[in-house]
Protein: Winged helix family two component transcriptional regulator
Organism: Breoghania corrubedonensis
Amino acid sequence: MCRTNDDLAPESARTIRHNLHAACYKMSTMRILIIEDDQEAAAYLVKALKEAGHVADHAGDGETGHAMASSADYDVLVVDRMLPRRDGLAVIEALKQEGDQTPILILSALGQVDDRVKGLRAGGDDYLPKPYSFSELLARVEALGRRTRPADAETTFKVGDLELDRLAHSATRADQPIVLQPREFRLLEYLMKHAGQVVTRTMLLENVWDYHFDPQTNVIDVHISRLRAKIDKGFARPLLHTIRGAGYTIRDDAR
């Protein structure tokens, strides 16, 4: 549910209310990571994004931000350039080298043309100089989010008695919690998005690992085996199936 507070931002309360209420109807919930060392600015952004109906996490330095971005799935990253422990551009370059395709909005007090060009060439998808208006930041974040997900993207999936909540990053089967590592969660999410369909190894490499080549390893087999043990072990009816020579599918065969 979207809510607004009159003391939310330096903009007028009326403008904030108008922008946030409009956003509620136009954009589904996103998960956003803010990498910002200014604690006051970060707290404001987290609060404002939550008021706009999104889920927001915060990292206060470059090293922590890189670790969080690498270990969880985000729809958009908001990255300050000048960060302690690791520079913002270095974080962005490292993520891109790892194959992370999450859209990135760079925030910086460095707003000259050369600064913006450098940020975009490092891997940023958009650049917003400080000081900024929250309504503009929100519009830019949501525009980035729309590039990689449909406006009506589902946030929960269900196959038989197996359920996955994308926003809560949780999964259950028969109401029993399943503890998943980030890559296992991403794998299960992708399979459940395509429930009943055969998902090929190439599809998994490109959409779960962000590989656009065959790494010639058994990484998929290992993760499928681990995932199968977590979601099917102890249940009479398996949900995760291997289709020999084709790929994998998740489906409920109960009739």
Notes: Residues 156-250 form a domain with the Arc Repressor Mutant, subunit A fold (CATH 1.10.10.10). Residues 134 and 222 are 44 Å apart (CA to CA).
